[in-house]
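Folds abound. A case:
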Amino acid sequence: MGISKITLSSFRNHSQKELDFGDGLTVVWGENGTGKTSLLEAVYFLSFGKSFKTHKQETLVKEGYSSFFLKGVFSSTTKKGDQVNIYYKKQSTQKVLINGKKTSGRKSLIGKNPVVVLSPEEQEITKGGPSERRRFFDRVFSVCSGGYLIELQKYRKLLKQRNAALLRIKKGLGGPGDVVVWNEPLAKSGIKLWSIRTDFFEKFKNSLGFVVDSYGEDIDIEVSYPEKQKDPNVYLEELKKREQRDTVLCRTTFGPHLDDVSVLWFGKNLKFVGSQGEHKISLVFLKLAEMNFIKNYLGDFPTLLLDDLFAKLDLSRSKKLVSLLKSMKSENNKPIQTIVTTTDLLNIEKIGILSMHENTTTHQLTKQCST
């Protein structure tokens, strides 16, 4: 699976842009400010219905415009390709069309044409708080399993309803019964979500271990997900025990929405002990594990988006990572579709990325072209 063509209208600093992508390596290069990262952001948006850089969609609209339009043509070796159109207008709802048919929105995109992005913004996965890691793993697991996404959305809806009941009680607009009615369904959904998450985490650990072993150097990176409660009655008692505190805080203080995942560097929590370099390389391995994990579930690798990655790593490590990427091929021995942005073509040639594929597509962006 991969993207073969993209069209952008009034998106970020692009008034109008159309690019073709090869099924192997595409290099997008140019000075800073020419819209290289915006192209990756658009590809990601067509896969997930949102940006990897911001939650405020109105900021994606080019200055002086009131809306943006994205179109992507996707192809696949295992299924019929898709054309995805996304329209966004300020102060309005986002419209998503797949092969000309209007869909229910973001949910219909997830898992259809997956991509994995590696950019500086993603460093919050290792450096940020628990919510950043939950968001990462929830996204990965949802791409691979519609069932996971459905249970996650169900749990979030029940959680929102219980929290709303807590707020009504605090305002004197309701009584304890308003919360009690949500405890049992929330407990059942929470237990089920924990069970599915635990299973996926075990498989993700295997994918990460495979990538680390394939790297061929003394590196020890793991993810730790503590064992979770499996008895809905115990879960229910915990909710009841915390009810008074939850009412004061107007939020539920127990459940999967508070999970944390530790990234371990040689057995120690990376968030607290990791250097800048250790955070960078750990993020790369998490992303390569994500690719391998998705391939194991969906049968093919996702498209890999590399946002000026090799400007952030030393030459020796960059070369080893390129070698590792070369070894990752699909079942029919096809290379991974990879889109790379860079300000320095000579640098990526030096580390060997241009030799990853027989055919390389190259696009140069200039500030004049991106307006």
Remarks:
- The chain has twelve helices and 14 strands.
- The chain has a mean pLDDT of 90.
- The first strand starts at residue 2 and ends at 11.
- Residues 50 and 57 are 8 Å apart (CA to CA).
